[in-house]
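Input set for joint prediction.
Command: fold jointly, output tokens.
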Amino acid sequence: MQINAFQVIAITLYAFIATFDMLETDLGLSKPVIAGFFAGLIMGNVTLGLAVGATLQLMILGVGTYGGASIPDYMTAALIGTVFGVLSGKGLEFAIGLAVPIGLLMVQLDVLARFSNTYFQHRADKYADEGNIKGIELMNILGMLPWGLSRAIPTFLACIFGSTIVSSIVNYFPDWLMGGLKTAGGILPVVGIAILLRFLPTKKYIAYLLIGFVLASYLKVSMVGVSIIGLALAMIEYSKISKEKAPAVSTSSSLENKENGDNTNMVLGDE
Amino acid sequence: MENTKIDYSPEKITKKDLRSVFIRWLLGGQLGWNYERMQGLPYCFSMIPVLKKLYKKPEDMKKALKVHNQFFNTNPYLAPLILGVDIAVEEKEGIKSEEAITGITTGLMGPFAGVGDTIFGVIAGTVFGSIAAYMGQDGVSAGVFIWMIYNVLRIFLTYWFIGVGYRQGVKVVSNIGGTLRNLTAAANILGLTVVGALITSVVSASVPVVFQMGKVKMSLQTDILDKIMPGLVPVGLVALVYWLLGLKKMTSVKVIWIVMLMAIVLYNLKILA
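tokens >
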């Protein structure tokens, strides 16, 4: 299959807009499953796009760029993976096998974009000294360019050279590698899950992890069902700890001291 | 010629100002993100409508621009709460409160980052993400729209935050800080329940090894492992990767490369499929 000019432009624009959405409005356009859905829509194969996006989504559930950390860019991977999947006609596994490495390599461009913006920060410092408000505003807005281009340019190139790249991969990639990548696609969600377990207070609440495990693997409860049970358990816990009335709530006095310049520590937050 | 009649007194902050600060944050709160000050420049960018109203003297303005252009980084959805508190304090105290402003923003950003990243990032991402992905694997797009509808509702919630921050000022921490902390604790339970369910449903790994003794064939996966516990292989893999992530100098990206290599090797040794 061939890709037409409209599709190249639409996918590239989507990459740019989704990057803005990731940073700002967060309607979800940068989530792999949603990016895959729209890429599938543009490429005329929604089922494949959704499947590519969904598989990538499961590798990175709830994992975010907390504290400015770079994470695999499975949004761009979902776009390019869907395009390659449609162009090759080789289906889901082929698309995933290519998408995952792309997502990992894209991390470097994320770092580059974040680094490039330091330039605008320094320009903004100068404008602050001069009291140039318009200048500061412009510098913040220009920050969008490194962000957007870091995703849009690779996506554009992948679309333009897509057919050539795909056919050479199909011809030259050995079976042992494609088979291995397929297996990797199956077990990579493990990493996303393990990262979540590191982030959440797993040791404290391990009982709930076991409950969720049994619900799904022994009782075959659907994901929505598990979420509702989890919500119920969370509501029970919430009403329990709200009644206990945590003593740490009395932070107001220490904070009001801050107004007077006192250096006091805040108590709010996770321990 | 100096006009002595220039009125330097600050104007009152209105609901409209709060809205324009919010919209600036919503549309520009991370554009200028950089390694040096992170959300510092965007924070300054967002506060400009208020600064213009409060600081009429050019030298006050310069000072204010500098104070707000410092290191800042927090959860983007809870940031409006901090912006609201900041606006309330500055309206009351003016530029002489600059130390207090820095104290408040830096004092609030850490705890709010922890709470906000957990609730809006980890928990919401895991719950809505797994639902959307599950439906997506079957070619159903409803999950995608459920997630997007939640995201739209969340924008209204964050708009509400800036008003809360402004009306309550620094008391916001004692008033809703406890609630947020309890919510986070409870949300963690929801998150862990879902993650527990994900382990077996998401990971497709099986061991294709078959033992043969005379005429008796025994599949390691279906005859042995599944009898012990369904999902034994995924659980083992999660434990392994969890341990890997705890190693020094280990990053998630490195772990992904390691898992990919491991998968390729084990597939070709016919141990994993």
